[in-house]
Amino acid sequence: MARYCYRCGRNIAKEPAIAGLEELLRTAPGILAITLFLAGCKVGPDYQRPPALGTNALPPAFSAPADGTNAAEWKPAAPAAHRLGGSWWQVFGDGELNGLETLAGVHNQEMAAAIARFDEARASVNVARADFFPQVEVDPSYTRQRASFNLPYNGAPAGVSPTYNTLSALLQAGWEADVWGRVRRQVESARAQLAAGSDDLQAVKLVVQAELAVDYFTLRALEAETDVLQRTIETYRRSLELTVNRRKGGIATDLDVSQAQTQLRTAEAALPVLRLQRARLLHAIAALCGQPAVGFALAPQAGPASDTAGGAAAAQPPTVPLALPSELLERRPDIAAAEQRMAGANAQIGVAQGAFYPHFRLNGLAGFESISASTWFDWPSRFWSVGPAVQLPLFTGGRIRAQLALSRAAYRETLAAYRQTVLSAFQEVEDQIAAQQLLEAQLRAETAALASAQQTLDIANNRYKSGLVTYLEVATAQTSALALERTVVQIRGDKLVAVVGLIKALGGGWE
C-alpha cells in the first residue's frame, strides 16, 4: 500500500515488492504465472515400496537340500517383469513342444484377451492425460419457440404470444488448473495401471506357456505308460496261451487259466482309461493353442520300445543349476503387477485428497446468435464471455472424507495383495526345489524296486514252467512289476512337470 507523507503532502512510492505484486496481479500473464507456480504442488503421499513381508524378516536364503544345491542368498529386489525369460521351453530340446508354444503365442485367446486389457490400460492413460489440456467443443443449435400469452414478454404486459426462432453457434472452452496435482495423480495412477497391465500380460503368457508344457509332458508320460501297458498286455496274452496249452497237457489247472484270464482282462480294462486321459489332455492342448479339438493331433514321440521306462518318457529333464540367484524372483510378473497396482492405489489417495481443495477453472464462450438465419453470422450477432471460476466444497455430507477413507483402504488392500504375492512366490519356489530332490530320490528307489520285481518275475516264470509253483505266483509277480513300471514312467513325467513348475516359479527360467 502507498504511504502518505505529512510533511510534503505527497504519496510515498509503494514498496517495490508490494508494487510488483500488484502489477503482476493486474496482468493476465501474472495470473498465469501464479497459477503455474501453485500447480507445482501435488497433494497426497509419494509412493515408496514397503517391506515385502511387513514386520516379518525376509528369509536369508532358499532352503537348501541336504546336498547343498539350489541355495541362494536374498537381497532387496526391484520387480522387473520386462526381464522375463524368453523361450525357456527350449531347454527341454523337444521340437514338438517348441512348435506348440509358438502356436499358442500366436493363437491363444487368453493371451489375446490380456493384450486387449493392456490396450485398455494404455488408452486409460491418454484419457487421464486429457485433463491437462483445455476442453473445447462446438455447440450449434436451432430452436423455434412460442412465448406464453399470459406472461409478460420483453417488458410488455401479458396478452402477447410471439413465435420466433433462435439460432446459435457456440464455441465453448474450459481449462482447470491442476493446482493441487489431482490430474497428475490420476495420470500417475493410470500409468501404474498400464505397467500392471503389461506385467499381467507377461503373467498370462507365462501361465499359458507353463500350462501347455505341463499338459504336453503329462500327455507324453501317458503315452509312455500306455506303451508299457500294451507291451504288458501282449505278455499277459502269451502267458494265457501258455497256460491254456499247459492245461490241455494236464500240467496246469483251470484255476491257473482263470487267473491268467483275469490278469489279462484287468490290464485290458486299464487301457481305455489311459487313452481317455490322453484324449482330454490333447483337447486341452488344442484349446491352449487356439485350435479346435476336432482333428487336432500330435505326432507320436519316438522312443525305444524296449526301454524300461517306457520309451517316450525316458527323456531326461534339463539339469537345474546347483545355485539359483535370488534376483530371479524379480522377474515374476505377478509380483511386478502387484507392486504397480499398489503404486496406482497410492496415487489415488492424492486424487481423493485433492477434492478437499478449491478447483480453479478458466471458462470461455463465444459464438453467434440470432433469431434469423439471414443475420445469424453477421458481426453484430456475435457474443462472448470469459472469466475464471473457483469451486470450493463446503458441505458434501461426508462424501469427500469417505472417498479418502475408501482410497486408503484400497491401498492397504493392494499392499496386502502384494505381500501375499511375495509369500506365494516363496512357497512355489520352495515347493519346486523340494520336488527336484525328492522326486529324484523316489525315482531311484522305484527304479531299484522295478529291477527287483523283474528279477522276481523271471524266477517265478522259471519256477512255473518247471511246475514248482502255481500261476498265482507268476500273476502276483507280473502285477507287481507292471505297477512299478508304470510308477517309474509317472515319476519321470512328474520330474519334467516339476522342472516346468520351477521355471514358472522363478519367472521364466534360471538364465
List the helices and strands and how they pair.
Layout: E1 3-4, E2 11-12, H1 16-25, H2 28-38, H3 95-107, H4 109-129, E3 135-146, E4 163-177, H5 182-248, H6 254-288, H7 333-354, E5 359-370, E6 382-391, H8 399-465, H9 471-505
Antiparallel strand pairs: 1-2, 3-4, 4-5, 5-6
What does this structure look like?
The chain contains nine helices and six strands; from the N terminus they run ββααααββαααββαα. The chain has 511 residues and is α+β, with helices and mostly antiparallel strands. It has two domains: 15-44, no CATH class; 46-146 and 162-511, Outer membrane efflux proteins (OEP), CATH 1.20.1600. A four-stranded antiparallel β-sheet has the order 3-4-5-6, with no helix packed on it. A two-stranded antiparallel sheet has the order 1-2. The protein is elongated. Residues 1-28 and 304-314 have low confidence and may be disordered.
Q: What radius of gyration results from the CA coordinates?
A: 40 Å
Low-confidence runs of at least 5 consecutive residues: 1-28, 304-314
Order of H and E elements = EEHHHHEEHHHEEHH
- Assign the CATH topology of the largest domain: Outer membrane efflux proteins (OEP)
Percent strand: 5-15%
**How does the helix and strand content classify structurally?**
alpha+beta
Terminal CA distance reads 73 Å
CATH superfamily of the largest domain: Outer membrane efflux proteins (OEP)
- Strand segment tally: 6
Strand order of the largest sheet: 3-4-5-6
CATH class of the largest domain: Mainly Alpha
